[in-house]
Amino acid sequence: MNIFKKEMKANVTSLIIWCCAQVFIIYAGMMKYQGFIDSHVDMSKLLAGFPKEIMVIFGVGSSLDLTKVAGFYSVFFLYFMLLAAVHAVMFGAVAVSREERDHCADFLYAKPIRRFQVIMPKLIAGVINILIFNMVTFGASVFFISLHNNGDGMFNQVSLTMLALFILQLFFLALGAMFGAVLKNTKLATSVSGAFILGFFLISVAVDLYDKLTFLKIFTPFKYFEGSTLMLDNQLSFTSAVILLIVSVIFFALTFFAFNRRDLKT
């Protein structure tokens, strides 16, 4: 319990900053939507002038109706995923190896507790942190959508979107924790985790740009859920959810295994 409290306390400030950043993205996105609506600009003609590569990078599909709040909001799911992924993976990588980074591991591991009892509270704290981040995203989304959608916050669609986001957060938390346990250097663990996020994103962009690379979708979690499918079709891929959850469990298991076997630096 003391380890859990320590991890929660150590991450309060960073969690607040991450949540504020997410709220700002949602606020800015909805303000941008309102600006387009008020200007009476023909969105189809405006977007037709942009290269396909730019549209893909910004998550805008040709089939999206950006004059509707659901279509405009679904574009921002890409940004939610990126921000949530970085937050989750960094928490996992740092929490697992925090004591070694700060050269105070001997104070913790000298206690009569098993390593399982050390790592479990850290991961629980990670799950609580990403859940709080998710709920803040949910609350801000419903609130700002309702302001620009005649009071309709699209509760059901946003709830489904947040469920997909939470599954992705679990995946990246497990990925970061695994690298934090396997690699001996915290900076290396966070760097490798960040490189994986960038790689996943670049693969997702390549898949959208080139039809011949569609088979690569399975290798990037950013393509397991689509904002348009969640918000417009109100559907969540059960297969994608199961695959990500299974891989997350594997990563968590590898975290326990690697943490239990490695030599700890003090």
Percent strand: under 5%
Radius of gyration: 20 Å
Give the termini separation. Answer: 22 Å
Question: Structural class, judged by helices and strands?
Answer: mainly alpha
Mean pLDDT: 83
Unreliable residue runs: none
Major beta sheet, specifics?
none
Shape call: globular
Helix content: over 70%
Number of strands: 0
Secondary-structure element order, N to C: HHHHHHHHHHHH
How many domains? Answer: 1
Oligomeric state of the chains present here: single chain
Instruction: Count up the helices.
Output: 12
Transmembrane segments: 12-30, 72-96, 123-146, 158-181, 188-207, 238-259
Keywords: Membrane, Transmembrane, Transmembrane helix
GO cellular component, one term: plasma membrane
Protein name: ABC transporter permease subunit
Account of the protein in words:
With 266 residues, the protein is mostly helical. It has one domain (2-261). Helices cover 75% and strands 0% of the residues. It has 12 helices and no strands. It has helices at residues 2-10, 12-39, 43-48, 52-57, 69-75, 77-101, 105-109, 115-147, 155-182, 186-209, 227-231, 238-261. The chain starts with a helix and ends in a 5-residue tail after the last helix. The mean pLDDT is 83. One of its GO terms (cellular component) is plasma membrane. GO terms for molecular function: ABC-type transporter activity. It comes from Acetobacterium paludosum. The chain crosses the membrane at residues 12-30, 72-96, 123-146, 158-181, 188-207, 238-259. It holds the Pfam family ABC2_membrane_2.
Question: What is this structure, in a nutshell?
Answer:
This is ABC transporter permease subunit. GO terms for molecular function: ABC-type transporter activity. Helix content is 75%, strand content 0%.
